[in-house]
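User: Just a sanity check before I run the rest of the batch. Below are the structure tokens for the first item. I only need the designed sequence back.
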């Protein structure tokens, strides 16, 4: 087999802040939705904001893909045409789509565009996992239609993905293959689910309303995460997926996590890795991105000169625990960085469908449907350069009003210029916390550090005992922490605390 290469790491960007955080903590690219057709209704940025964000990313050698992966209705086609035309001139790296209509509209626009051959930069096309691509011939078909990258269906085993990519190499097909490596999972075929629409429609459900929420339009209520009571209404007829006489958790999926098996994905020549979670927090995006950035870099360091035999690779794909046993140095490294996948709340982790299905573990255990949440985010800091770039470029946080943003910018600029010490940082609180009752930690690009000797003030430099949600504060750090963390005013970092066990 050929030597390995380093894949591209894509992180989710629900808004501009999350995109900037993803890049800062190591993402090679992000995928971001517009205000329509992106399958995350609340993951919004407008076109002007996005143009500036893409320009910033490209200057740093980063990639930005735009999601247009909703399945369209006939009366939406004209709007989509106008939308895609605007997107093309934003110069994203790729457009992620599911519906073939998007592909046809894109081709028509390019063909009818005056001097299209002279356009400096055209986005490529990426086929979403929503299209449920499960075999080589489907990949071949889409490649022939002009698709550059294909996101494999999450129902495939890694061995099946490997064999499809191997066949593509043999036939010299020019496409990239991308797989999900972390995040929430759908139990339907590649996420095309009608359960949310059914349960929120009063015509079908007693608890429904006038406002129905369709998963295929970006409004899923995640009903597959609920715990269900199964009622047997016919004598001697049993629900075949029931786990005992009271409950079935067949729909309640765990979260995907492949941190320990990144080298196997690299051995399989996967071109791009994707982290799920556009609706998650910046803290989630940053910590998960950081974990996989470290894992990918270390895997390349350890295995870059390692040529694995195909029979050994297949053995590991069929029995991944044997890989961890044979490469203890790798396992020990992941043991050390695994904490970064636990910082933000999540469900129990699983390797999903990627490995042996003899003992599947992708559904939640009986009676255990709660999130794992050992830590809570307290506050975040976004560096001066990033804040100034956002103000200069007109980029706003989509979750705030213009007034809120302007007030915060004015306050920050005033304090930064006139009153801040070199060891003071303006943080923005994300939770309400009593300082004396909590143990604080700092997460930055250098890792996780205990915060013992620190002070927190309000914006008038008065000491406080309570951090209140959604407010600016001044964090003062001791010199030893600044030395260890190598923090500067141009970075991003987070303050978090350990939750008390109830």
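Assistant: Here's the designed sequence for the first item:
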């Amino acid at each position: 087999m050929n030597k390995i290469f380093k894949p591209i790491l894509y992180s989710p960007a629900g808004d501009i802040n999350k995109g900037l955080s993803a890049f800062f903590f190591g993402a090679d690219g992000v995928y971001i939705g517009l205000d329509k057709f992106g399958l995350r209704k609340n993951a919004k940025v407008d076109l002007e904001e996005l143009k500036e964000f893409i320009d910033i990313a490209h200057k740093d050698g980063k990639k930005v893909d735009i999601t247009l992966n909703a399945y369209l209705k006939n009366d939406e086609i004209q709007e989509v045409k106008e939308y895609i035309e605007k997107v093309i001139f934003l110069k994203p790296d790729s457009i992620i789509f599911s519906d073939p209509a998007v592909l046809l509209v894109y081709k028509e626009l390019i063909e009818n565009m005056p001097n299209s051959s002279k356009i400096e930069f055209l986005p490529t096309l990426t086929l979403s996992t929503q299209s449920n691509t499960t075999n080589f011939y489907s990949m071949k078909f889409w490649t022939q239609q002009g698709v550059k990258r294909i996101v494999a269906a999450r129902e495939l085993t890694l061995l099946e993905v490997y064999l499809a990519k191997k066949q593509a190499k043999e036939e010299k097909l020019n496409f990239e293959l991308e797989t999900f490596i972390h995040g929430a999972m759908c139990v339907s075929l590649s996420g095309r689910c009608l359960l949310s629409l059914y349960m929120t429609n009063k015509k079908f459900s007693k608890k429904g309303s006038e406002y129905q929420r369709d998963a295929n339009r970006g409004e899923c209520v995640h009903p597959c995460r609920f715990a269900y009571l199964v009622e047997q209404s016919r004598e001697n007829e049993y629900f075949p997926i029931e786990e005992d006489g009271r409950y079935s958790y067949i729909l309640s999926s765990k979260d995907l996590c492949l941190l320990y098996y990144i080298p196997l994905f690299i051995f399989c020549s996967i071109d791009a890795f994707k982290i799920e979670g556009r609706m998650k927090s910046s803290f989630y995006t940053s910590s998960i991105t950081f974990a996989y950035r470290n894992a990918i870099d270390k895997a390349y360091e350890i295995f870059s000169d390692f040529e694995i035999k195909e029979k050994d690779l297949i053995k590991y794909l069929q029995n991944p625990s044997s890989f961890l046993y044979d490469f203890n140095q790798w396992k020990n490294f992941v043991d050390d960085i695994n904490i970064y996948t636990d910082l933000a709340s999540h469900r129990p982790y699983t390797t999903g469908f990627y490995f042996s299905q003899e003992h599947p573990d992708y559904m939640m255990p009986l009676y255990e449907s709660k999130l794992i949440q050992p830590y809570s985010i307290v506050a975040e800091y976004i560096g001066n350069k990033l804040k100034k770039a956002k103000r200069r470029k007109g980029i706003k946080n989509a979750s705030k009003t213009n007034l809120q943003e302007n007030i915060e910018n004015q306050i920050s600029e005033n304090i930064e210029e006139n009153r801040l010490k070199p060891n003071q940082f303006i943080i923005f609180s994300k939770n309400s916390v009593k300082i004396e009752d909590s143990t604080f930690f700092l997460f930055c690009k250098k890792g996780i550090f205990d915060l013992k000797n620190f002070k927190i003030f309000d914006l008038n430099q008065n000491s406080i005992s309570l951090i209140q949600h959604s407010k600016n504060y001044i964090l003062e750090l001791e010199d030893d922490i600044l030395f260890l963390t190598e923090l500067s005013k141009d970075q991003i970092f987070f303050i978090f605390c350990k939750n008390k066990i109830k």
